Amino acid sequence: MEKSIESIWKEGFQISNSLIAPRISNLYTRKSIDVIDRLERMFKFNIYLLAGFALLFPPVFFVLKMYTLGVGMGTLFAGFAIFTQRILKTFYTIDKGQDSYTYLKSVDSWLTNMMNKILKIYRFVYPGIFLLMVIGLYTWPLADKVMDKLLYHFPDMWLVYGYPGWLMIAEALILAFIIIFTEPIYRLDVKSLYGDIIKQMKNTLEEMEELASPESV
User: Fold this and answer.
1) How many other CB atoms are there within 10 angstroms of residue 25's CB atom?
2) Is the pLDDT of residue 129 over 60?
3) Is the pLDDT of residue 66 over 80?
4) Which of 17, 70, 72, 143 is the most exposed place for a label (fewest CB within 10 A)?
5) How confident is the model at residue 15 (pLDDT cuts 50, 70, 90)?
6) 179 Cβ partners below 8 Å, 6+ apart?
7) pLDDT greater at residue 206 or residue 21
8) Bigger pLDDT: 13 or 199?
9) HSE-up of 132 (CA within 13 Å, CB side)?
10) What is residue 163's three-state secondary structure?
């Protein structure tokens, strides 16, 4: 019995799909690998950058005779580098024996979880950096000379513990701003470093889910 045109077409499409499917699978496997490689490279770059700042800040601030700020910033960024290195180690514990979609989904969940954990720490880090800079400026040997000049030109200046009252108010307002807007600042920071990678990951997952949905078959 001869096949109808409809059955021939249907069979032809099945053969075509069987040939195309592995190619699509390989394409998204390569796209997944590219996303993971970019993410890993960015984490490593971030670690090197933090370590570089940790080594750079102390001698620079020491030259400026801002010893407290030099030690504080060097220690802080060294801690950041170590912390980020530990985060990267947890990345390597994700099961790589899964298919590309499941693995990429696991990485996406891991990244979201890590970002939320880091945010909790940065709620203290951003204000801490600002306070460290303030302390560094107040302990700067040249600060006394600057105060003497200010008092010479403005002898009736309002002082609080020997420092301008308006400066104290400005510092308090800036600190309050940093505390209130820590999350938006952190999200902007993450977007500047990982925004393109996260977007690529989300797009790849959406495309893979769309191809896997019954409507696309």
Assistant:
1) 15
2) yes
3) yes
4) 17
5) very low
6) 123, 126, 127
7) 206
8) 199
9) 18
10) strand
Give the per-residue pLDDT at 65: 87
Q: What is the pLDDT of residue 162?
A: 77
| 21: pLDDT strictly greater than 70 | no
Instruction: Report H helices in 139-181.
Output: 141-153, 165-180
């949905």: which residue's tokens? 213
Q: Is the dihedral of CA 189, 192, 197, 200 positive or negative?
A: positive
pTM of the model: 0.75
Q: Where are the beta strands (DSSP E) in 4-54?
A: none
Per DSSP, the three-state class of 35 is helix
Give kind and range of the element (H or E) at residue 37.
helix 5-63
Contact 29, 211 (CB under 8 A): no
| Type of residue at 123 | R
Q: Are 84 and 46 in contact (CB under 8 A)?
A: yes
User: 189-195: long-range contacts at Cβ-Cβ below 8 A with a sequence spacing of 24 or more?
Assistant: 190/115, 193/42, 193/46, 194/39, 194/42, 194/111
Cα separations in angstroms, 70 against 10, 43, 86, 134: 73, 25, 24, 13
User: Cα(59)–Cα(54) distance, rounded to whole angstroms?
Assistant: 10
Asked if residue 49 has pLDDT above 90, the reply is: yes
The answer to whether residues 160 and 8 touch, using CB atoms and an 8 Å cutoff, is no
